[in-house]
Amino acid sequence: IYRAQSPAALPTFLLIGPSGAGKTAFLTLTECNTPANTHTSTAPLAIDALLPDAHPPSSASFRSAGDPAYERARRFLLLDTPGHGKLRRLALAQLTSAANIRAIIFVVDASSVADEAGLNDAADYLHDVLLSLQKRYTGAKTSKGPKEIPVLVAANKLDVFTALPPHVVKVSLERAITDVRKSRAKGLKDSGAALGGTDDGLDDERECLGEGGEGPFEFRQMEEVGTTVDVQGGNVLGGDGSDVDKWWAWIAEQL
Ligand code: GTP
Ligand code: MG
């Protein structure tokens, strides 16, 4: 049996981020139009998703609903990953192994980044995601597929009263990533010294996020390696229902 287009050929949006951020909740909302109860994920999960009517995909915005080209352009694959610290390697591996990654949605709980521990955990993970993208871009000679991959930082749970507004989530993450970058650079230097102090052959391992790793890190620096980073707020759940329109609008722009 042949399908017009196999799921593997659909553009993939990778959901990644700390545990409890709301990735699976967003997946179920996209799939069923209503968020279902979720529990901690232990394995990646992909669904064949359809952009809601209110958000025409940018590549077919001049077409109307029902037009086959429009209907095709609305389809995408949403790939959920587990956020638990011990499973992050798996999730990061999807970045290089999953076919056809169009974009990345880094979901973060906007209230958990209000405290230092939550912020550092999220920044640590986001740093690694961005560094993978940078390496993918700089080593693009051999890899296939699009090398420019945009990132949406989805600041979730804005319904929670302790949630930080999206622009504060943005600057907090940038500040915390600056610290992660500093401590990683120091760690690499120390391990380099332990290995005898030569730089030879370690360049790849030593790659530092952003422009030479000096000064404060800003998401804007990622544009040099083909990645734009947007921060948009929303809530998958909440007393007044869910509001993830900004995320869908962002997805529509990438389709
Ligand atoms: P892992 O699978 O462990 O990586 O976590 P996850 O990112 O998939 O989190 P999940 O979607 O399971 O959501 C975690 C908890 O947060 C669940 O109890 C959700 O009901 C809750 N939650 C998700 N989104 C929102 C939101 O917008 N507002 C509120 N108040 N709670 C939310
Ligand atoms: Mg989950």
Automatic annotation (TrEMBL):
Protein family according to the UniProt entry: Belongs to the SRP receptor beta subunit family.
Protein name according to UniProt: Signal recognition particle receptor subunit beta
Keyword check for Amino-acid biosynthesis: no
Species annotation: Polyplosphaeria fusca
Molecular function GO labels: GTP binding; hydrolase activity
One Gene Ontology cellular component annotation held by this UniProt entry: endoplasmic reticulum membrane
Membrane topology: Single-pass membrane protein
Plastid as UniProt keyword: no
Pfam families assigned: SRPRB
Keyword tags: Endoplasmic reticulum, GTP-binding, Hydrolase, Membrane, Nucleotide-binding, Receptor, Transmembrane, Transmembrane helix
Residues in coiled coil: none
Cell compartments where the protein resides: Endoplasmic reticulum membrane
Domain of life: Eukaryota
